[in-house]
Amino acid sequence: MTQVATDRFGAFGGRYVPETLVPALDALEIALAEAVADPAFERELTYLLETYVGRPSPLSDAPALSARIGASVWLKREDLNHTGAHKINNALAQALLAKRMGKRRIIAETGAGQHGVATATVCARLGLECVVYMGEEDMRRQELNVFRMRLMGATVVPVTAGTRTLKDATSEAIRDWVATCEDSHYIIGSVVGPAPYPRMVRDFQAIIGREARAQMLQRAGRLPNVVVACVGGGSNAMGIFHAFVGDPSVRLVGVEAAGEGLESGRHSASLSKGVPGVLHGTLSYLLQDADGQVHPAHSISAGLDYPGVGPEHSFLRDSGRAEYVSVTDGAALHGFQLLSRLEGIIPALETSHAVAWLAEQAGRFPADDAILLCVSGRGDKDVGQVSTMLDLEGKA
Amino acid sequence: MGSASATISSEPVLTERLRTLRAAGRRALVCYVTAGHPDADASLRLLRELPEAGADVLEVGVPFSDPLADGPIIQGSSQEALAQGVTLGRSLDLIAEAKSSAPVVLFSYLNPLIAAGPEVLQRAHAAGVSGVLVTDLPVGADPAREAWLGSGPLEFVRLVAPTTPAERMAEIARHGRGFVYLISRLGVTGVHQGVAATLPETITRLRGVCELPICVGFGISSPAQAREVGALADGIVVGSALVQAAGVGGVDAALALVRGLRAALDEVAG
Ligand SMILES: Cc1ncc(COP(=O)(O)O)c(C=O)c1O
Fold first, then answer.
1. Bridge partners of A186?
2. Any CB–CB contact under 8 A between A349 and chain B?
3. A33 close to A100: Cβ distance less than 8 angstroms
4. How confident is the model at residue B1 (pLDDT cuts 50, 70, 90)?
5. If you average pLDDT over residues B32-60, what whole number do you get?
6. Is the ipTM beyond the 0.90 threshold?
7. Which of A47, A48, B17, B138 has a CA that sits 20 to 30 A from residue B128's CA?
8. Closest ligand 1 atom, CA of A115?
């Protein structure tokens, strides 16, 4: 019988979907359980993660940034994965799962284009058809990623409804899946959506934290005092947090996008400013008005520009296990430059939010603290956008 | 009003309307309109005049910013209504003002209902709403909220999809009130030609486990489809085609469409 009510994080999560999708989610749940219990699935996934994605990703020390912050900073380098972000960990695992389920057509949504590129990539590798929904506004902001997806054979469908960003791309991807769930699999790009997606995506991203925890113990000889990651939907953050949730000494910090400021009404800080509500199949903190209409999000970074957030983050917030902070567009631009200058690592604009929060904390940590920062992706995709915003020569 | 309710029956309005139709061998014509679309005046006229054109039940859509289960036509109508400030509260005002002679089912996504608070069902009832249907709350998804919706003053209509297995159909039928809304095809709302090839078989399966009247919706727009589906089910739901007619041709075009569907449906009897 159906398990629709069970998969929750406290009060959050669930399966708030049209009836048509309930059997598809049931089937996914069963296929997932069978796959993770099958050593052959694990073997194939590990093989591809090592030989195709390039895992394990390194843990870098960051001498100049550490000096600036006044504590030792360690960088978990998801930017060095094939396709340049953590997104491929999940895309690859779900694509293998889809293949097991006999589904030859993959649907995905994308904001920054990183999840779309990761999905197009694994579909090319595994010989699957790939359709990516992307808001028209984001296609403009992330032109190069659109080209990359098309180069690898994906169909990129522009979404012109609503805000023309990630929120509407996700709605459109779900609409596709409602019509095609019998032969298509929907690869959601973050720890959002109806159960079992938030847990499944977290488990596929948890390799980040598993590796980082072992690397910290080996390299620093200790657990970090603080783990920090940016939060859009929250997959890189859940991925790195998960291995540390059971370590009470480790402080978990998620950094949301404050856009033009938390009081401006133009931000993406669902956990700081939202109210629990239902969007895209899950109950979680949500930017919405008093009538329950979803409030458009804003962020300089397309990958954080989403009015909802993964339900497990809502649970970690309310239970106090993790804390959620936010930084503005301007601060993120500063973080973008800071990591580039100090460490020779150009971070994604999403990641730059976590960097910026850390920069704001300079001098506030005990000197012997160790801080682990998730570099969720590299900034190559953003240099065009940032270069039009910054006059580097004028500032040099 | 013609139907001077001297009846002392405590049977809920929606259930009674469908039972009466069934007893008379007539098929139910359920008409969906988006509240406040194309504008508030037209919306009021539709609610008042659709019953005379042949509607037995009205479904009134609450405009929502992110209508996941809807295709471009109803998405567009929701956007237009929202741009005119029509949300749940205004929708209820319109229903109250219209005093339609047909039972009204409020058709909503869950979030606006949650945001409106627990008293919203009483408010809706006071406004003249008889039933409620929630697109993104499948049976078993949230027992507490389902209990809230099901134990209040409104009849909680549930949906069955072509993908729903037989045991789950039975579970849905047990929870449903008024009628069961059978989604005719995979996909979102919209205007389609023809009828899904799987529909007769789906209806047969559902009949086997369901005593409630079955109304079939999603994609039904023409008299030919009305005849074909009317021969199989207890009623049909017309949505996108009606919204499109109202948007393009105004109230009169919408009423003309409904008259055509009524005539076609009345050719099916027994
Ligand atoms: C590099 C990078 N980091 C972070 C995100 C935000 O997603 P999440 O919060 O799921 O990690 C994105 C999304 O596109 C991204 O591309």
1. A107
2. no
3. no
4. very low
5. 98
6. yes
7. B138
8. 14
Q: What type of residue sits at position A132?
A: V
Residues of B taking part in catalysis: 59, 70
Please give the Cα distance from A181 to A106 (Å, whole number).
Answer: 10
d(Cα A371, Cα A223) in Å, to the nearest integer?
9
How would you write A292-361 as a 3-class SS string? CCECCCCCCCHHHCCCCCCHHHHHHHHHCCEEEEEEEHHHHHHHHHHHHHHHCCCECHHHHHHHHHHHHC
Q: Which of A350, A341, A342 is nearest to A375 (CA)?
A: A350
What is the radius of gyration, based on Cα positions, of chain B?
17
What six digits make up the tokens of B250?
A: 């105004």
Distance between CA atoms of residues A195 and A198, nearest Å: 6
pLDDT exceeds 80 at position B265: yes
Residue whose token pair is 């999560």: A13
Residues A113, A90: Cα–Cα separation, whole Å: 15
> Which residue is it, tokens 């339609």?
B100
The Cα A250–Cα A1 span in angstroms is: 39
Q: Residue A290: helix, strand or coil by DSSP?
A: coil
Residue A24 φ then ψ, to 5°: -65, -40
d(CA A86, CA A211): 13
B157-193: burial string, b at 16+ Cβ within 10 Å, e else: bbbbbbbbeeebbebbbeebbbbbbbbbbbbbbbbbe
Please name the residue that has the structure tokens 């973050």.
Answer: A190
Residue A160 DSSP SS3: coil
Which token pair is B135? 């697109």
Question: SS3 of B227, please?
Answer: helix
Across chain A, where does the E strand assignment appear? Answer: 8-9, 12-13, 59-61, 72-77, 105-110, 129-135, 155-159, 184-187, 226-230, 251-259, 275-279, 282-286, 322-328, 370-375
Quote the CA–CA distance of B74 and B46 in Å, as a whole number.
16
pLDDT tens across A207-262, in order?
A: 999 999 999 999 999 999 999 999 999 999 999 999 999 999 999 999 999 999 99
pLDDT at position A3: 45
CA distances in angstroms from A326 to A74, A268, A317, A385, listed in the order given: 21, 9, 14, 21
Mutate to test the pocket of ligand 1, among A134, A235, A284, A376 (most ligand atoms within 8 A of CB): A376
Where does residue B153 rank: exposed (0-12), middle (13-18), buried (19+ CB within 10 A)? middle
Secondary structure class of B269 (helix, strand, coil):
coil
| Gap from B262 CA to chain A (nearest CA, Å) | 28
Task: Look at ligand 1, atom 10, and give the residue with the nearest C-alpha.
Answer: A235
Please give the structure tokens belonging to residue A392: 């580097």
Supply the pLDDT for residue B6: 44
Bridge partners of residue B31, in order along the sequence: B58, B238
Nearest to A20 among B75, B163, B167 (CB): B163
Residue whose structure tokens are 């606006």? B112
Share of chain A above pLDDT 90, in %: 91
> A332 C-alpha vs ligand 1 centroid, how far in Å?
14
Measuring CA to CA, which residue among B121, B122, B156 is closest to residue B142?
Answer: B156
Look at ligand 1, atom 7, and give the residue with the nearest C-alpha: A232
DSSP category for residue B247: H
Contact call for residues B31 and B262 (beta carbons, < 8 A): no
Nearest-Cα residue of chain A relative to residue B79: A162
Nearest-angstrom CA–CA distance, A88 and A73: 25
Q: Is the peptide bond before B143 cis (omega within 30 degrees of 0)?
A: no
pTM of the model: 0.96
Asked if the bond preceding A23 is cis, omega within 30° of 0, the reply is no
